């Protein structure tokens, strides 16, 4: 199965790093994105950006993905069949 363009971990990493003013290489697959400064306002911005690219995503769904929001969890959610 291929990952739809724009929702693979590396693309999400670059997008989130830009939003947080961080370097992509400083954000790891399993980091809790809240610990890096990703707050609810930024998540809502990402949700709107991803919807514009065709994702069926809701803020609440991202918040409910396991104990912590991570790149891998979000990528898997965004690319689900």
TrEMBL record:
| Gene3D superfamilies associated with the record | ACP-like (1.10.1200.10)
Q: Which Pfam families match?
A: PP-binding
Q: Where is the Carrier domain?
A: 3-81
Q: What is this protein called?
A: Isochorismatase
What is the species of this protein?
Kitasatospora cheerisanensis KCTC 2395
């Amino acid at each position: 199965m291929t990952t739809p363009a724009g929702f693979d971990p590396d693309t999400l990493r670059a997008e989130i790093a830009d939003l947080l003013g961080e370097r992509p290489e400083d954000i790891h697959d399993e980091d809790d994105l809240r610990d890096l400064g990703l707050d609810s306002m930024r998540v809502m911005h990402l949700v709107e950006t991803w919807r514009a690219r065709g994702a069926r995503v809701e803020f609440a769904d991202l918040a409910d993905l396991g104990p912590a929001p991570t790149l891998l969890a979000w990528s898997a959610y965004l690319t689900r069949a």
